[in-house]
Structures are given as structure tokens and as C-alpha cells.
Amino acid sequence: MLSIENLHVTVEGKKILNGLSLEVPTGAVHAIMGPNGSGKSTLAHVLAGRPGYEIVSGKITFDGQDLLALAPEERSRAGLFLGFQYPVEIPGVNNVYLLKAAVNAARKHRGLPEVDAFEFLGLVRDKMKFMQMDESFLSRGVNEGFSGGEKKRNEILQMLVLEPKLTVLDETDSGLDIDALKIVANGVNRLRSPQRSALLVTHYQRLLDYIVPDAVHVLVKGRIARSGDKTLALELERRGYDWVSGEAA
Amino acid sequence: MSARFSEQYAAVADSLPTDVVSAERRRSAVEMLTAQGLPTSRDENWKYVNLRPLEKVRFTPAPPSPIDASALPPAIQGYERRVFVNGAGGAAPTQLSSPVGPDARFAALNDVFATGQASIHVTSGAACLELVFVATADAQAGASYPRVNIHVEPNARLTLIERHLSVGSDSNFVNSFVNVQVDKGATVQHYRVQSLGARAIWYDTLNATLTSDATYRVYSVGLGAQIARSTVSVKLAGERAETGIYAASVGDRQQNHDTYVVVDHTVPRARTEQTFRGIAGGRSRVSFNGKVVVRKDAHGTDSQQSLRGLLAGPEAEIDVRPQLEIYTDDVRCAHGATAGKLDENMKFYLLSRGLEPETVQRLLEWAFLEDVVARIEVPELRKQIEQSLDQELS
Questions:
Q1: What's the predicted TM-score (pTM) here?
Q2: pLDDT digits (tens, 9 = 90+) for B371-381
Q3: pLDDT tens across A82-120, in order?
Q4: A interface mutation test: which of B351, B382, B390 has the most A CBs within 10 A?
Q5: How buried is residue A235: exposed, middle or buried, by Cβ count under 10 Å (0-12/13-18/19+)?
Q6: Taking CB atoms and an 8 Å cutoff, what residues of chain B touch A162?
Q7: Cβ contact (<8 Å) for A102 and B353?
């Protein structure tokens, strides 16, 4: 599904990713862990195509396509979804409008007609119920006045509605209490299937108690320092990042 | 330039209705203009508007002309509509008070040549009215002088929709003068939509005076014209009077939209709110100057200004200026003014959800204007304005 080869990225001349290579097979959920400043969020942003990052060298293949050749909106339509660490508030653009516009953009890309407005609303309502979100959120501005937890749930709602092939979650667990964390994890697990993949970027192990990954990678100084199964996350939690950082140095 | 006012006035003086403006008042306006001339870009309050076309404009009024009702926007239920073609029309006009305000020269020009007037006098209860000013003539053939006089008596209520639009020719010269008197405890909701033709020139003067506990809210949406300048002066002359000035302006191509507002607090405990949202696209120039004067006796004044401009074209220009003149201590005056481009984080967020860049741009511009548009309390009008904005932004 996702293949990253020897990726080098700089931001304002500063090296952030230094030869990162990673394979996420179709149907797999991988976690990327790492200390602050290791390049985790940069990786998430680069995958989604955020401006401001210079790709010095390397290659990213997503579902058979050259990801770096696609604009951000094309990546989304091709089935890549980024759950933001800090979802943006957009007063004046309402949530349901955005959901519908996003779904229709993806459908148009696949040569499908626009969704039926009535059916769509029913589908969104079901998914909101699952995410334990009040229906009043639909008519509000995108993330406008939402609490931190509500914003994260809204990200997962968008993911459930868009049904991406690859979900990249950028520290979606940060700032969540345990109940919200469970709701978010349930959302991610609901979409888990042999056809879909996910890449979870996280600082802490606790998200992985609820979304059990197929593989865990530790990012240090812009490259994968160590990979393993879910027990690696537990070991990291016990021994701290210095353990891997020391080895990588 | 000075002799042209008297020459052009003399040419049409006999045909101008004296019940709209008396011959004596017309002559004194001619004298004033002859002595002072019209504003030029050297005047501080006029530096953001292009005044050069005035040098060759023919000021004499265009004759009335029949128009096809289908060319007008759909009527709004519950609102009595009055249509004025090239400023002419209106029954039994009453005299307006003489032009005042930061700059009365364009109002004086209206005094000289006005051919009609909408007189609105609400003595009690609530009235809903729509005034449609249609300009049909090319600027070379003659000008249009919309003229409105509003008087709302104590505790009465008026909701007024005022439109300026072009039919036939898109290069009109329009000079409007609106005078508003709001008595004790009365409320006026005033919606103004300027959607003149692409080459039209609009100079507008609006003066309002409020007595105690009066409320005057004016919502302006500027879409059309090549050059549009609105000069708004509100005098808060009674305690607890309240005014809201909400303006949205969308410039494109080489349009020049300029709004100059001054609110004068002369008494204690009055309130002002000013909200401006302007978008300058293409090579347009959009500006808003919001001045609030708080006089010595106006303690307890509450004034809020939120003025924001959005630069949407590489060669566009936007100027937003809050101006405060405060002569007393006990006041609350908050002001915020920003001018810039669309927020990159918002843009990326929407792109990352698969929306086209053009859609994202339009959506965010739309959202930007919502701070003004969402305040429009007449649902049908709001819908019409939203449709116009949608066309303008796409």
C-alpha cells in the first residue's frame, strides 16, 4: 500500500528526515513512535503533501502511484487521509458541507455521480452516533469552538465517511482522556480491513493498547532506528526513548 | 472646473422639480460646489478612491426611461417595492435637512440635480419597504440622483431594503444621498445592495442622526460598479443610542470600492459596532476607513470595530483603517484591523480533504464574508445576496 524509499526532507534548510525507508503492506496497521523532534509529524505532513517541506531525495509509492507527483487534493481523492494533530477551525464553512464536498470530490475522481443528499445525511448520522458526537455538530463551522477531544473525534468521523485506503493519524491521541481515546480507537478499528492500511504516528504507547498494530517502528533523527512487533512499544514504554536513541547514535 | 456646475445647472434648471429640492437650495449648492469643487485625491478622506472620471462626467440628470420589470431582482414577500429609474419618481417629497457630514460635496451635487425622492415617514408600528434605484443611462447621456429621506418616529420600526442596479447601460454615473432620522426608541434596519454595472460610477452619501434609545443598523453589500465610494456619517445624539455598521465588499478586475465611515458620539452611553469584510481580487482596490469620534461628554461610550481585508489577487490592494478620536476617559473602544491573504492552514486542511483549489479559495472567501452576510435578517434577501456572492467569487 505504502512504500517509502530513502526519503530525505529538509525544512528551511534543516534536515528533518534522513533516509527514511518504510513499507506498510495492504491490510496492515503500523505505528511510528519516536521522541519529540524525531520527524514523526514531518513524515505525516509530507505524506499528505503539506507545503513548506523540501523533498531532497527519495521516493514514495502509494497504491501503485508516485505519491510525490500528486497535489494534496489528488492524494486525498486517491484514498489517503491525514488525521491532523491540530485540526483547523474554519468558521463559516459548515461540517456537513465539508463532508459532502469531500465525498463528492472522491466520487467524481472515480467517475461516480454525487451522493444522494438524503441518504448521505443518514449515513453521516450513523457514523456520528458511533463516534458519540451530537448531531448539532453538523451545522456548526468546521471544528469551530470544538474542544480538543471533539476535534479529534471529528477527524475520525471524516475518516469514517471518506473510507480511505490509507489513514495517517498524526498524534491523534495527544490530549485525549481515556474515554475519548477509546472512542477514537473504536473508529479506527471499525475501518480496519484486509483492503485498508493505517499509519499511526504517536508519542505514547497507550493508543496501541486500543489499536493493536501489526508493526511498530521507532523514528530517531529522521530515520527508522528499530522495527518490531507490538511488544516493541511496550519495551519502549519501559525503557524510554534514550534506549533506542543511544543505540542509533 | 468650477464654472461647469452653474453652466450645467442653468441648462436644466427649469425642468428640475422644486418640490424635491427648492430652487433656492439648488442655487446655494451650486455656489458651494463652484467655490469648493468636488473632492480630489489630495483630500485625506478621499485618497483611496479614483475621482478622475469626475473631470469629464456630465452632471445633468438622465431622463426617466421605461424598464422591463423582469430585469429587476425577485420581489421580497412582505416588502412594498418602489422603483426609481435614474433617480426620478416618488410622491410628495419632504425637504431633507441640508447636507452635513465629513464631506458634503457629493450630497450638494445631489441637491443641485435631484429629480425625485423617496420619502419614508414611519409614525408608528413597523414598516417594511424596498427601494430599487435603477440606472439606465450612459454617463455621457446623463446622471442618476437617487435621494432618500427617512424619518422614523418614536418607538416605530422600519426595515428598509435599498438597491442600486443597472439596466441597459452598465456605465452609469450615480450619485445617491440618503438621510436618516431615528427618533427616541425607534429602530431602523437598513439593507443596502450595490450591484451596479461593470463600468458604473457610484458616489454615495449617507447621513444618519439618532436620538436617545434609537437603534440604526446598516448592512451594506458592495458587489458592482467600476468605482464605488460610500461616505457614511452617523451622529449619536441621544443617550443609549446604538448603531451597527456592517459592510461587505467584493472587488475584482479593476474595481475600486471605498467606504468611509464616521460615527460621532456626542452623548453618554451610546454604542457603536463596525464590521467590515472586504475582498480584493484581480487588480481591484478595496478600502474601508472606520472613524469613531468620542466627544468630551460621551462617557460610557462602547465602540467595537472589526475590520478585515482579504487580498485575493496578485495585483490587488486592500486598505483597512480604524481611526479613534477620544476626548474622554471613561470609554470602551476595541478595535481590530487586519489585511492579508487566506490562512494557509485552512487552505491545506480543505485541500487534504480532496477539495479543488478553486473550491477551497471560494469557500474560504465565502466564509470570510459570513461575518457580515450572516447578520442579514431577511431570509430571502440573504439568499439573493449569497447567490450574487457565489457568482462574484466563482
A1: 0.86
A2: 999 999 999 99
A3: 999 999 999 989 899 999 999 999 999 999 999 998 999
A4: B351
A5: middle
A6: 353-354
A7: yes
